Amino acid sequence: MKTRVLTGITTTGTPHLGNYVGAIRPAVAASRRDDVDAFYFMADYHALIKSDDAARIERSRLEIAATWLAAGLDPQKVTFYRQSDIPEIPELTWFLTCVAAKGLLNRAHAYKAAVDKNSAAGEDADAGVTAGLYMYPVLMAADILAFNAHKVPVGRDQIQHVEMTRDIGQRFNHIYGREFFVLPEVVIEEQVATLPGLDGRKMSKSYDNTIPLFAGGQKHLRETIMRIVTDSRLPGEAKDPDSSSLFTIFRAFASEAESAAFRQALVDGLGWGEAKQVLFERIEVDVAPMRDSYDALIARPGVIEEILHEGAKKARAIAAPKMAELRDAIGLRSGASSTPSAAAKAAPKAGKLPRFASFRDGDGSFRFRLFSAEGEELLLSKSFADPKSAGALQKRIKELGAVAAVLQAQPLALALELDGEEVATTPTYGDEQARDEALARLRGALDQLAAQE
Question: What is the pLDDT of residue 349?
């Protein structure tokens, strides 16, 4: 069984070299492990706590998604989505709010720090404190518990929030008498690399000392590196690599052999200007290919949107059944029966039926989607050279109904096969349970289509 690992990505600001070395690069590497079911989401609801600049939030979401994709995150291998595209998260936040102890939230570090700052300034304890800041731990708990994540990698400043998630999840399980939630484990990122900024302090937007990863292009990257503060030692004078920001940054990108050669050059008196040029050229080797991918993605935001849309569908395939289970457990059931059957839950609203939606692809070919009565996408057809052929397949599917052979095409998706040929595929689902539930819905929709004929 794979371990589900969930990571949130803050969507404020423009990514810089410190973000790449400390978070993006190691996370992308970890996502490639075969034993991990990786979830990466852009925490744009959380961003609203820190910023009320709508344009900045919108731009940052685009830039950060493009950055992670350009850095090698494979949306086919992981579940990559925006928090705000998952309506089950705010709903679960409310369910958890109703069981979370106020005393627990009072102890949250961010809230306590705000209260202490106000008290020291002689202000009211809650001056400037929003309910969003206060409820941050519950929203984070919903992010994690909605997907039954086993592990959550965090820095030390976030350990408390994962512990609070465990407390809230355990309380819900106890109140409603069943293990609805997996209680996540903290994975402490002890080896997170930190880079110095332009002034020698930790690279941070708070200090305005960052080196941009992609923003401004190659020219801006070089100009920024040339502004790194160094000491007054002249060319020909020996430099101390261990106290040099240039060497620290260089080592984060270079091999051991390259680092040793750069160290020796500094000791031998390499001038700071030449050293900065060497640093720029070494970083550019890694960054240039990613920048090309980033620029291509930024120029086509629709591509990013489609990737995130597909990621949200994968995520919701897990979150939606979970929420249906929780609604039933807490008494928010539909209809008069105490425990509706799966068929009753899946029954469409009166007057609504499954439907086909035809469209033309960018290459000029024709395809169609099959949607359930509730609007869920169930199938995406193969491409056809003309609309008549696509229409003929729709008619054939209607005639066959659930008699059509639905086969497993890959572990978490399905294929519709007619006469030995794959003619349509389902979305990719988050796990086998979600896939099997989708299969039941697909068969039901096919039967409804057959009944119309």
Answer: 47
